[in-house]
Amino acid sequence: MSILDMFLAGATFRTTTPSFEAGEEIEVYVTDYDDAEGDLYALVGETRLSFVDGSRNLVGCRVLARVESFDDDAHRGTVAHLETLDRGSF
Amino acid sequence: MVDAPSDESPEIDAISGPDVDRIEFYGGRWTSVLPIALFVLWAIVQSGLFRIGDTTGLVAGMLVSLIVGMFFVKGDWTDYANTIFDGMTKRVAATAVVAWLWAGMFANTLQAGGFVGGLVWAADAAAVGPALFPAVTFILAALLATGIGTGYGTTVAFTALFFPAGILLGANPVLLFGAILSGAVFGDNLAPVSDTTIVSAVTQDADIGGVVASRFKYAIVAAVFAFAAYVVAGGAMPGLDISQQAQDLFIENSEPAGLVHLLSMLVVIVTAVMGRHIVEAVSWGLVVAVVFNLVFGLAPLSAVLLFRVPDTSVAAGAVAGLPIVEIVDPGNAGVTGSLYSGAAGFFPLIVLVLLIIAGSEIMIRGGGFAAIQDWLLDNVATGVRSAETTMVVGTAFVNSMITINTAAEIAIAPYIARIGQKYNINGYRRANILDANTSALGYIFPWAGGVLVGFATMQGLPDQYEWFTEAMVVNPIQVWPFVFHGWLLFFVFLLSALTGFGLEYTTDRRSDEVSRV
Q: Name one Pfam family in it (chain A) (predicted).
């Protein structure tokens, strides 16, 4: 990233529901575990990405994940956990 | 093949705060807010209602608040007492103390060397009129603060040096003070060496260079409007009517040679920007300033440091010839000079800061901060826009409550991290929201550290200039509407949170992490 790009990055009005494409590898913090649905998920804005496999001890961790499927209309998708990178500082 | 995280991932602990002794309060964890809340009330009554800007009075207020808080502690009071010690010995407290002591010595030495005279000469020669002076002051203060990274140090230097010059030139004192504070806000927010910048980056797992670059877009928008506002307000708000004789006397005594101290300031800025420690940077500036004072005949060594030795001392005869010794009556014995008065001017504030940090530590260990966080997550931060708005308003609120902005920033940083991570808001964005309001609100309200630092400096001016009367001292309660850059920065971020301007997600780009604290 050039210095100019660093200064200009993010200078847009960003949506609350970002989109992803299947196959994309992303780093996300795992938001929560939904007891009722048995669903481990990460919110990116208000887009909900459910882990196809995961356990509640990942909540709060930063993980590398691959997008498996994504529904652009519902702003929901599924991701596969690839690697646990670390957990948030707090 | 998908890895099963529960099997493959490393053991991950439950996410919780650092393991420290908790304090139980009658009435639950909200009661732990009491010492800080009482102090804020005291500060409002003392400085706002009674219009007494005595910093030592605030020290008394914080002491009383800490004592009152103790009566609400369940069981043994030892933990409460120990928490006061723990808070006071935090590194953030020492950092502020050291920065002030050094900045105070430096600013006073520049002052002894006729820097104000140089500035008055320059302003007079360049015909910067009273209307433009606050706007120019804002820019110069912003530059200095960005260079040395300490808004408090900038406030001290500019209140001691630019403020009297501006008043003599007919600028409005309240507006001038607001412009100085605005410059301090700008630098505190943007400087890579600023303690608040560093805290914001480190706590949000982002690198400092990337954080500075990413916050430029917000800072510059606010600064452009702030500059315009100072130009407009400078034309609309009249200055004081200083007697023509005082002005003439001052301008007659203005001395272009005093401007060499721009180089002293440059030494500090350059060494700081080169990444040297702020203590080292200011020390070099101090050495250069003293040398310039001597070489250009701006001030004798005795103006920097003078031992007033009583004639009754056995050593009086032997040291009488030294340039830093004056033999006096026993009643006048003492130490004087810019090093002495520069440091001594901060003693009450230093004590106050230590006590306030102790109070906020009690609030953390008593669960008051956690209570606020839980309430926010459950009731307010329920979507990404509302989460960001909560981060902006929450940071503003905590910073308006806790006088010393770095202490407030450290206290709120975990909330910003947790709320932001819940929605995968990028570390740069979180750091920017955190630091903007920390910087802005730390220089606006009457009890804010930045305002008090300036006020403490200003109170020394009547002793230094015959023409400077007590009436010219700006009361902290007067200045809050005029810290334009601070207010604009707050509103820029409020609008950004509401509209999504500048919002980035963790999936958009990686914030290169700096070493964790």
A: DUF7513
